[in-house]
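Priority: medium. Attachment 1 of 2:
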């Protein structure tokens, strides 16, 4: 099993994210779940040039980069509603198929939160 590596803010470089796009969703995962499992997001609301993303985690998995982010959600709703029943879904971005990454990410979250 390949390890998921979270990219820290000080090590982040947006150039390797060029060309990524929406590949899937994390359902039933809250902001707090992500924070407890992986720590603070790589990018914060202040980093979003267009205000469309508040929190974005950047990961490396099997040699590829992926992102987990909110999309066009007012910041006050991210922590309160994300992942709750009837709530919002975190987006997963990448350059190719992300199914294995999403599965591995969900397993990591479940391990921490059990």
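Attachment 2 of 2:
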């Amino acid at each position: 099993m390949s390890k998921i590596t979270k990219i820290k803010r000080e090590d982040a470089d947006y150039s390797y994210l060029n060309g990524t796009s929406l590949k899937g969703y994390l359902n039933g995962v809250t902001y707090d779940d992500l924070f407890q499992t992986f720590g603070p997001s790589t990018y914060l609301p202040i980093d979003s040039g267009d205000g469309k993303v508040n929190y974005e985690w950047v990961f490396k998995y099997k040699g590829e980069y992926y992102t987990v982010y909110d999309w066009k959600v007012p910041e006050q709703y991210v922590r309160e509603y994300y992942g709750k029943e009837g709530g919002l879904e975190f987006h997963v971005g990448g350059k190719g198929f992300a199914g294995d990454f999403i599965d591995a990410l969900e397993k990591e979250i479940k391990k921490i939160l059990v």
